[in-house]
């Protein structure tokens, strides 16, 4: 997730921390076409468009994985849909985490219902 900071003082003087870094903080990169950048639920945060619907909580609030901000397709074949308790995931977890004797879903379905990898 990246944070948006003020562009500067209006006289061309850049504000501190304005360089955009993948996975870091900085302004929305103006040099990139708009289709490459996606806003998060928090208007001051952004991600690269290819991070939407990838199963990972890139925005920190799951807005890149869940509606109303993003309309993602259902979990893919390598994923299990459940209410995740792992911050990294939103409503799908990788099936490799199923039946590993560790709870990843609030309803324990990853241990008792998921068919596994």
UniProtKB/TrEMBL annotation:
Kinase found in the keyword field: no
Keyword Disulfide bond: yes
Domain LDLRAD1-like C-terminal residues, every copy: 73-112
Keywords in alphabetical order: Disulfide bond
Region listing for Disordered, in residue ranges: 1-27
This protein's name: Low density lipoprotein receptor class A domain containing 1
């Amino acid at each position: 997730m990246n944070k948006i900071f003020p562009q500067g003082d209006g006289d061309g003087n850049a504000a501190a921390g304005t360089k955009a870094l993948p996975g870091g903080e900085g302004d929305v990169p103006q040099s990139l076409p708009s289709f490459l950048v996606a806003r998060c639920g928090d208007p001051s945060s952004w991600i690269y468009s290819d991070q939407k619907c990838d199963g990972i909580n890139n925005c920190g609030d799951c807005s890149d994985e869940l509606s109303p901000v993003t309309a993602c397709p259902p979990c893919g074949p390598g994923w299990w849909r459940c209410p995740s308790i792992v911050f990294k995931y939103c409503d799908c977890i990788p099936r490799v985490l199923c039946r590993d004797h560790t709870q990843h879903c609030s309803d324990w379905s990853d241990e008792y219902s998921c068919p596994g990898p």
